[in-house]
Amino acid sequence: MRGMTTDYHPPVKRSVEIAGHKTSISLEPLFWDMLRTAAAEEGVPVNALVARIDVERIAADTPPGLAGAVRLWLASRAFTAR
């Protein structure tokens, strides 16, 4: 258990703003924690990081959904940090 977050918790829906438009993303608390940490390490707000991930996602040949793209981006970041 990491603080108040357990590894096995259903997704939590939160609102984010991308390019002036509000949308919601459902992520497990572990991924929300990882996203906040990544944003802090990069010195940007969570919304800005999600917007950047969204631009990369849309450029893909077969773009995943936004929540999936966030999870994949975080997993890729964790994997390359090894």
From TrEMBL:
Superkingdom is Bacteria
- Which residues belong to any copy of the Ribbon-helix-helix domain? 11-75
InterPro entries reported for this sequence: RHH_dom (IPR027373), RHH_sf (IPR038268)
Official protein name in the record? Aryl-sulfate sulfotransferase
Organism lineage string? Bacteria, Pseudomonadati, Pseudomonadota, Alphaproteobacteria, Sphingomonadales
